[in-house]
Amino acid sequence: MSYETMLQQFLDSSDAEQAGLFAASCAERMAQLFTGVVGTDPARVADVELVVDCLDRLWSTTATHPWEELAHRLLLLPELASEEVPDGLFPYAYEAAGALHYACKYRETLNTEHIESCCNHALNAAEFISDEVGNGVDRYEVECALQLADIVDLTSTSGAVDSLLREALRRRSQERSRELLEELTEGS
């Protein structure tokens, strides 16, 4: 079964918690492409803190957060507010911020089209890193495989997702995020 088919089946059949955690995992895998790039600028500490706060909220079991406000604040980040393509490593920060924005939009609206957009930002970043680094690793396919692994893990539970799975998904995504930033900064 293709990636697209499995993703669509998951989005059609998952509950809001499963879909929200899937989006959180995608956004988390891209997060260090934002925090690691933008965080080098002391003037952008508040932007990094916003991203970290949004990620923590996406993984939270608390249902109510100001999702509309958070999504709007993310849109005000220079990476998303500008109509110009950023220089250097900042296009990766754009993809990471975009993934996070759409994960928050999903939580605001429960419209799975926002998860598809989140996934697309993650896949774009992965593909761009492969192009940038040029070492023959197809990070687009790796990201597809990681998204599918998240789907398998999230659909293998009956009922609510327990804290152990939630933590395992987050740890796996954080580790991948660290790897992507490392590959990008070493390869540039």
Summarize this entry quickly.
Helices cover 77% and strands 0% of the residues. It has 188 residues and is an all-alpha fold. The longest helix has 25 residues, at 163-187.
Task: Provide a descriptive summary of the structure in words.
This protein is mainly α and about 190 residues long. The protein has 9 helices and no strands. α6 (about 90-110) packs antiparallel against α7 (about 115-135).
Largest beta sheet, briefly? none
What general form does the structure show? globular
Q: Look at the structure and give the mean pLDDT.
A: 93
Spans of at least 5 consecutive residues with low confidence: none
| Gyration radius, rounded | 16 Å
**Count of individual beta strands:** 0
Q: What is the helix/strand order?
A: HHHHHHHHH
What structural class do you assign from the helix and strand content?
A: mainly alpha
Describe how the helices and strands are arranged.
Blueprint: H1 3-13, H2 16-38, H3 45-59, H4 67-75, H5 78-81, H6 90-109, H7 113-133, H8 139-155, H9 163-187
